[in-house]
Structures
1.
Amino acid sequence: MFACPATDDFFRARIDQMIDLRHPLAVLASRMPWQEIEAAVAHRFLRKAHDGVAMPDLDLFGEKVQRQVSRSNAGRPRVPLRIMISLLYMKHAFNESDEGVVARWADTPRWQFFSGQSYYEDRPPCDATTLVKFRKLLGEDGVEELLAQTINVAVELKLIEPQELSRVIVDSTVQEKAIAHPTDSRLLEIARIKLVGAAKDAGIALKQTFAKEGEQLSRQAGRFAHARQFKRMRRAIKRQRTIVGRLARPGGQLYQQGQGAPALRVWREGGHCQHLQRQPDCGGSGVSS
């Protein structure tokens, strides 16, 4: 499928005669230390025998050792390691999917030149699933090695100053976070749960934990706020404050008398939850339990 770079084909034009060698991708292809990159990650693709021993002369990606011609049931021919690394680079550089980068490789001579091809091939280099397997076998350490080699080339070409690599600034403003809005109903429900847990740790037998009613009130407050039924929402939050006050009362009395376990400190803080500011707010309009 792939022609040898050292062989001249009379019937086909070489890719370096078809493209502008001053293109950034063509320049990068000539500056990348491909042999070092392949040597750094080649050990990750060694085949292993049935007893788990590595077989150095059989690797999943790379040059195949010349052997005596014989029939084999090993499967499809292996893909050169440089092509797989180049596909991984171009996938992230041009924001392509696995299927997209394989299909676009067959239509772009510059990409084929970057992959080490001498002649244009009007066919995909491999299946998209092969790229998925390659990425899994490469692992996080292998990806970091490829990234480090890219940075080293950028420093050698003076595209990046060494001082710029002394500090890394990561902007996570668009990163999704599992943080719920601290609404009154949610805070009161959390206070009820903590008070019940502190009572259990302190050995206090509560007559009622209001578990079922507390969860129901928390859900109702969120639904009422979403439906803009603020009177019903405030009524549900008021009931939650009452429940927290009833649960905080026995533990608070024991804490003031200096009795009980250190877990009773929860009442000193949790008891204040019933005195949340009664102002017009979004109540349960955020994410509620």
Note: The first strand starts at residue 46 and ends at 48.
2.
Amino acid sequence: MDFFALPTAACRVLFAFLVLSNERRNIIHFNVTESPNAAWTGQQIVNAFPWDTAPRYVLRDRDGKYGEEFNRRVESMGIEQVLISARSPWQNPYIERLIGSIRRECLDHVIIFNDKHLRRVLKQYFRYYHECRTHLVLEKDCPDTRPIETPDFGPIKDKPMVGGLHHRYYRLVA
């Protein structure tokens, strides 16, 4: 899990909170706020893992946004926190890579106006990320596995995603 900051067109700074599953690179939960604190972050971890679906471990940095309230919530859920060293983002490479991909593939091409707009753009990007974006570590599959479409399925069509920034290519069944 990690945060990243993003300036808006109104010169405000929004913070996006992400929870990533390392197994299939699934984005389990995200949310956006203008002022993150320990209580808000603690509620986000509860929202990310409802009904006893919490993982055994969570890897995070030593950011001040994770305070005592967050620690109490995580401990009550039975999650063991693994803290990376201070100022060492390379110790949490999967989420850092995801944040870089979000920036390069989406947010560097869009002007964000407010928190609702950022939520909508991220939701669209995460749909593309889960359903269409391939990963080498997943043997060029998506986090949500999809069937292989052979040439006998029909001609190739495209579907614009993320406001036309990306496209999903598929075969049209004849």
Note: The two ends are 43 Å apart (CA to CA).
3.
Amino acid sequence: MPDTPNTLPYAGLRVVEFTHMVMGPTCGMVLADLGAEVIKVEPVGHGRQGDATRQLIGSGAGFFPMFNRNKKSVALDLLTPEGKEAVLKLIATADVVSENFKPGTMQKLGLDHASLKTLNPRLIYVSHKGFLPGPYEHRTALDEVVQMMGGLAYMTGRPGDPLRAGTSVNDIMGGMFGAIGAMAALAQREKTGLGQEVQSALFENNVFLVAQHMMQFAVTGKAAAPMPARISAWAVYDVFQVKNGEQIFLAVVSDSAWKTFCHAFGFADLLDDERLRSNNDRVRAREWMLPELRQRLAQHSAAELAAVFEANALPFAPITQPQDLFDDPHLNATGGLAPIELPDGRPAKAVLLPVTLDGARPPVRLSPPKLGEHNVEVLTALGYSAEQAQALGAPQDTM
């Protein structure tokens, strides 16, 4: 981890988060990567042992290590007077509070915006929910739920076979919009001196993602077809099965690119074919043209095709599985992956934010924390002794 002083944009900003799963932790991770001190308050006692995503398996196994780097962990039992007192002292020092629990949860704890703004008028309070306030706000939402009801699963799957996207797109982007809202509120606070509440929601995020298809209908009067059944704007824009059963995505999206493509592969007959003169002509000819191209290109390996396309500045892509990206030469050469230590002590690589600041990617300063790892550091600064800080992180359950 870097030993240099934190000179990132949000250095000196303190964020206290009450989050779990993906959406809320993503917001905190973005602010943490940009330099903020993010303190993750994790529940203990009464059968709870921190953020439940620490114990997830299967497709959830990557949640905690991915979205909780650059954070500190403070374990507290908020159902005890001592834990509640400690967290209120902590919030009094915070610039931002972030949460993503069910509606009413933070209010029951006395940690909702209305309660906390009297304690700290400069506080920015970010809530991540399933739905913004309205008729649906009482519903329980998940990424898959809003993908189904928000048109994304329809657009992703084949007709009659709605399919969720292959990653937590709404959770991640919902957290990003929560972070953007926090940034806007921080800028506003510079003018007014006051904090405010920011809300971000899964459903509204999903609607934003499919808004281009809504506008497509508004412009054309025709419903957007699911992506696998759409009439592509481009004649060659597809996955090709090639030599040895390999697959590769190839694209030829302009008339000049078509000339380049035909010259590169010696397809003079196709270049001279009047039926293929323009891109729109080729779109209309896809039914017979694509099988012809598939047959001709099948004699090449994916690597051979990639080399020709790259040499001629034509778009292409290998069909890559996520784990293969750890060895991607571009990501490794450009510093897009950084070493971290998993909570169980094993080394791994973390994917950094996809931005550069003055030519550098915001780094990993802290590996994902162990539960309560920073109790002593954080709570002693609030006036607790080291013994008290440790005791607050390991309360005894009461019967």
Note: DSSP finds 18 helices and twelve strands in the chain.
